[in-house]
Specification:
The complex is a heterodimer of chains A (114) and B (109).
Chain A lengths: L3 E4 L2 E4 L5 E7 L6 E7 L6 E7 L5 E2 L8 E7 L2 E6 L8 E7 L7 E2 L3 E5 L1
Parallel strand pairs in A: 2-11
Antiparallel strand pairs in A: 1-3, 3-8, 4-5, 4-9, 5-6, 7-8, 9-10, 9-11
Chain B lengths: L2 E3 L3 E5 L4 E8 L6 E6 L6 E6 L3 E5 L2 E6 L4 E6 L8 E8 L5 E3 L3 E6 L1
Parallel strand pairs in B: 2-11
Antiparallel strand pairs in B: 1-3, 3-8, 4-5, 4-9, 6-7, 7-8, 9-10, 9-11
The chains are: A mainly beta (114), B mainly beta (109).
Chain lengths: 114, 109
């Protein structure tokens, strides 16, 4: 089955630093990957759609200069949280789809900014 | 606007049956998904409905009525490990997933 690998699983960083999160599709090519953020006891919120070889499409209210997305290959998308602040602490999850159904999620990254 | 409604929390007893409802109002419809999410983990795929009717998969079944904008997830023979949040999501006319807030299911012995 389709597998999406996400690293790191958790990260603690100091306020003002940048953090990179990787999302890889291990056994299929993903021209499109999705990045979500989830705050405690809330649902998934789509941040951006990452398209291989082109610029990401950001949802309204998401700062593209703060959340840098790079989708350089068909199997790798990265999300960089720049100049992180405590309010950026959240659970970040990527997903990809091999077919029209059954989006597969990465294991998620718990980011804590101190 | 687009909206997906599901109960915030439900409680059920081990071995029993529980039905989690989901109603939606979206711009177009290209399928409805149910996902299970344990605390601190990513969601895992449970079911997909695009046509009206019931889809059965082991202890889990999912029903869809497009005319009513309604779906439910039915869990039978509940086990303690079924304690989790259950997320309903609809793919709209732009093939974008719209997510419900999730239903936290608590299973008691």
């Amino acid at each position: 089955g389709a597998v999406v690998s996400q690293h790191p699983s958790w990260v603690i960083c100091k306020s003002g630093t940048s953090v990179k999160i990787e999302c890889r599709s291990l056994d299929f090519q993903a021209t499109t990957m999705f990045w979500y953020r989830q705050f405690p006891k809330q649902s998934l919120m789509l941040m951006a759609t990452s398209n291989e070889g082109s610029k990401a499409t950001y949802e309204q209210g998401v700062e593209k200069d703060k959340f840098l997305i790079n989708h350089a290959s068909l199997t790798l998308s990265t999300l960089t949280v720049t100049s992180a602040h405590p309010e950026d602490s959240s659970f970040y999850i990527c997903s990809a789809s091999q077919t029209d159904i059954g989006y597969t999620f990465g294991s998620g990254t718990r980011l804590t900014v101190v | 606007g687009q909206n997906i409604d599901q109960p915030t929390e439900m409680t059920a007893t081990e071995g029993a049956i529980v039905q989690i409802n989901c109603t939606y109002q979206t711009s177009g419809f290209n399928g409805l998904f149910w996902y299970q999410q344990h605390a601190g983990e990513a969601p895992t795929f449970l079911s997909y409905n695009v046509l009206d009717g019931l889809e059965e998969k082991g202890r889990f079944s999912s029903f869809l009525s497009r005319s009513k904008g309604y779906s439910y997830l039915l869990l039978k023979e509940l086990q303690m490990k079924d304690s989790a949040s259950y997320l309903c999501a609809v793919k709209d006319s732009n093939y974008q997933l719209i997510w419900g807030a999730g239903t936290k299911l608590i299973i008691k012995p």
